[in-house]
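Hi R.,

Here's the chain you asked about this morning:
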Amino acid sequence: MPDQSPDALPEKVAGVRIPTSEVAVQTAAFVRRVSSETLFNHVMRTYVFSSLLFDRRGVRYDRELAFVAAALHDLGLVEAYQTPAERFEVDGADAARRFLQSRRMEDERVEVVWDAIALHTSLGIATRKRPEIAMVCVGSGLDFAGNGLEQIPSDTLQEVLAAFPRKGFKQDAVDNILSLCRTKPTSVLMHPFAEVGRRHIPDFPVPTVEDLLLAAPFED
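And here is the predicted structure, written out as tokens:
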């Protein structure tokens, strides 16, 4: 009998099956508990959008692994899992690894999730890796910036947004980026988030790539 609790996930969203294995259910419950509703809905949309695109292409992938990686991919934006200086992607990957190891997931599968999370903002790298790694990058990129949205039919899009509403995602994302820039500026060195810091934070201390180059201790 399907779980009728208020926090239960639907069996399918826009035709995409939500995994119901023990680790998938535990992962979703964990992420819902530690994240804001806005962030939780984003990581769920990441999975659904990526599945829609990859299913359309006929790509074969491990659905449980894709779901778990997508669900856990933004733990680095949760204060409890942030370190003083690491990039948020690495903080999230490390937190995901600890969580999955505590659930006794096989090491090889844990490392796929680690790579998927650590690389999810590196489009040119992640999309050259195995599908479960590429999917987190592609799905999150679609939800964040609309990359590939033209491939999603309008009625399908509305189904996804009805299941997992955005609830102010744009402003929430900007706030999260600025929080990282203020509290751990060294983590955004040579990171695209630094552009947001420079726009909004007076005297933002993080040098640009050009600054680093010109400050190198060589004559030319």
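One quick note: The mean pLDDT is 96.

Cheers,
M.
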